Amino acid sequence: MSTDPLSSSTSGRPHVVIVGAGFAGLEAAKSLRDAPVRVTLVDRNNYHKFQPLLYEVAMAGLEPDDIAHNVRNIFQGSDTVHFRLGTVVGIDTTVQQVHLRGSAPLSYDHLILAAGAVSTDFGIPGVEEHAYPLKNVPDAVNLRNRVLRQFERYDRTRDETGDGALTFVVVGGGPTGVEMAGAFVELFDTLNDDFARFDTREQARCVLLEMEEHLLPPYEPPQREYTRQVLEARGVDVQTDTAVERVEADRVHLQGGGTIPAQTLVWAAGVKASPVAGMIDAEQAWDDRVVVNPDLTVPECPNVYAVGDMAAIEGEEGYEPQLAQVAIQSGRHAADQIQCRLRDGTPERFEYWDLGKMATIGRNAAVAEFAGGISFKGFIAWFLWVVIHIAKLVGFRNRLSALVNWAYNYFTYSRSARLILDVVPIADDVPMEEEGGQRVKERPETVETHPQ
Amino acid sequence: MSTDPLSSSTSGRPHVVIVGAGFAGLEAAKSLRDAPVRVTLVDRNNYHKFQPLLYEVAMAGLEPDDIAHNVRNIFQGSDTVHFRLGTVVGIDTTVQQVHLRGSAPLSYDHLILAAGAVSTDFGIPGVEEHAYPLKNVPDAVNLRNRVLRQFERYDRTRDETGDGALTFVVVGGGPTGVEMAGAFVELFDTLNDDFARFDTREQARCVLLEMEEHLLPPYEPPQREYTRQVLEARGVDVQTDTAVERVEADRVHLQGGGTIPAQTLVWAAGVKASPVAGMIDAEQAWDDRVVVNPDLTVPECPNVYAVGDMAAIEGEEGYEPQLAQVAIQSGRHAADQIQCRLRDGTPERFEYWDLGKMATIGRNAAVAEFAGGISFKGFIAWFLWVVIHIAKLVGFRNRLSALVNWAYNYFTYSRSARLILDVVPIADDVPMEEEGGQRVKERPETVETHPQ
């Protein structure tokens, strides 16, 4: 029986609070598993999500349960790490407390902020109201529902569905956008067997918009070119040098004129730091990230670290990119620094070790660039991508289940998770105050849709 | 390219409309796959759900996708059977039309009603507001979320959660109630490894209430006794001869006095026919089922059949029970009768062929009674139950995925799907009229909870 993390007095060990169970927070907690500390890992969901594969859930290739893993399960049997389901609503660095909605504040000796990033619309009108983001599991399920439902509507009342019912615009030519676009055209193929009364491959269309000159800007020219060629050969309408001016319910207006009739727009264009970044008194970069010291501490808060997507970490070419590898390495670094400090060691600066990057374009096609200038494209890159992504999923069951789904889809040319299952965005925790000691049923009775 | 099922004129074949893609409707559609008809299979979901395993989803043993199978996938490549996602809002037997929300009515030559059953509260106050039903996939996911969240709340703010936070009352001692109760105590075991700060096996409690004298009333005494013994040995508080008088948010009042403090009540006590049964002018039994002729036609509507859980079919001992086997056989019978009539044959009466029944109690324990008086209990019954249920799941992928999950859970003593993922009950189809030709985003912005 471990001590109660609520009361610091019951244990001599320093209390480390980690906010967020994404790649960074999870890695930090794992790194501290055998350290002489108590760790409370806080997340608003009871699962860790494998973010790089969210698009596969949205595109009916994987199931939500394949990419989500119960956090308590990861730390079963640990006396050091405890999980807390909760939403952070404030941080007080003077008294060293994290405020959670609906329960007593958590006192910390060391704090690691790893709350990640959220979608941002860059102030473009209509994005907030009309675009589908893809940052969490409910987002992915909502998008899957939306896409499948558009096909059902078109099948049922073709003439009434209006222009662009089956046009899906993906904004953002980074890895997520490329992967989404590639998966969209594969989904159209699968759905062609589902809908006998029209040719989905002719009627449905995927447009990929990128405001810069090339897709996958951080990649080398051969990989970029290959990506564009494959996407276009498979039927994606790739438009680079193209920026969105404003979005309406059934059309996208482009900068410099031009309109695309489209009833579904996927926003893979930009992120900003989680609102948690604004809860401490620290400098924030243009995208709200917390600007950190070289050792990842927050200036003037030597016991507070910011890591992963919510940290602006100075690198060789500006701030380090918001990638899983940076998150994992920075989460580990913060954990190491805390241990170092407990031994009265000197803080060390964080150095990102770039292992390389990879993006899949679809069946048998991907691009990869590794350290030392080694690059792959095509089948080999794709195969590496599959192996690495399955290996990195947390837990044997998730790996096996994802493998089963992918193998099934690969050999049958299907996408097996074509289910319309409605999900609420994150119903947060119901605050105890508002409950008034009474039971509150989570099942929502009324669902409001956007009034148009 | 097949003809448009909306216009009867485009095809010489008679048009069969089937309402509901459960066991009965799906079997009817499969039976008509090679018949000289056109079939439109209507359901409000785009998937067939394997209802007998809903409780496993609620108890985090299986994933929603394991028990749900895309309907269009089942009829891929068929020119005869078409699927239509839609909600039936009315039936006009004089002009032979089925009205769907938000699209043109479907004209039929033959109609098979297979809309199943819904939960009923028998007029017991508080059940509607407070109890968790278990009739569809969102129900199961909601219950899973509720149960897992209760443990999180208790872990976080033990003293404030009140009495009965971890008491789970299951009402109804039929197969669903027994299976739920058995799975609850297994879940408590699994969660004990998740929550280090309290003993879930001591704090959590499952109470199974049955108003009749015995659990599993239709089974023989040895099986009933065994079931009760196993449940009690595993820690379920079984209370027979006990009826619910009224339900409050945090307690259950029993008839004849007595109260159980419990914040979560699962309603596995009773069902009535789907509201679709009331859309035709026909006699209805006490539980709203449509009273049918021996050949399953609705009296005075010779081209309308009612089958499965929404049909009151006269059997040897009153109406036939609402079981998957009756649904499958009656669905097939209605399909056969339509083919028979197309050949000018004589209608035949439906005879239910009782293959037997089985119910699982949990790990290594089940009861089974087959035709000819053969019965099993214990490990053999359980093993048969697992094999038969996996074999009956629709589709190779579902079978494999369920097998993987079960095998994993069996050998690790875990329940792998312990995720809190919020789901809306069935967001129906958005009516086109209300959309005003505009896109309506399915993602709900506001979730209302029950005001207490």
Describe this structure in words.
2 copies of one chain form a homodimer. Chain A has a 6-stranded mixed beta sheet with strand order 5-2-1-9-22-21, covered by helices on one side. Chain A folds into 2 domains: 8-119 and 271-342, FAD/NAD(P)-binding domain (3-Layer(bba) Sandwich); 127-269 and 356-412, FAD/NAD(P)-binding domain (3-Layer(bba) Sandwich), CATH 3.50.50.100. In chain A, helix 1 (23-31) packs parallel to helix 10 (324-342). Residues 1-10 and 424-452 of chain A have low confidence and may be disordered. By secondary structure, chain A is an alpha/beta fold. The longest helix of chain A has 20 residues, at 137-156. The radius of gyration of chain A is 23 Å and the shape is globular. At the A-B interface, strand 5, helix 6 and helix 12 of A face strand 5, helix 6 and helix 12 of B.
Secondary structure blueprint with pairings:
The structure is a homodimer of 452-residue chains.
Chain A: E1 15-19, H1 23-31, E2 38-43, E3 47-49, H2 54-58, H3 64-67, E4 68-70, H4 71-74, E5 81-85, E6 88-92, E7 97-100, E8 103-107, E9 110-113, E10 117-119, H5 127-130, E11 131-132, H6 137-156, E12 167-171, H7 175-194, H8 200-203, E13 205-209, H9 221-233, E14 237-239, E15 244-247, E16 251-254, E17 259-261, E18 264-267, E19 271-273, E20 290-291, E21 297-298, E22 301-306, E23 311-312, E24 314-315, E25 318-319, H10 324-342, E26 356-362, E27 365-370, E28 375-377, H11 379-392, H12 396-412, H13 432-435
Parallel strand pairs in A: 1-2, 1-9, 2-5, 9-22, 11-18, 12-13, 12-18, 13-14, 20-23
Antiparallel strand pairs in A: 3-4, 6-7, 7-8, 10-19, 15-16, 16-17, 21-22, 24-25, 26-27, 27-28
Helix pairs in contact in A: 1-10
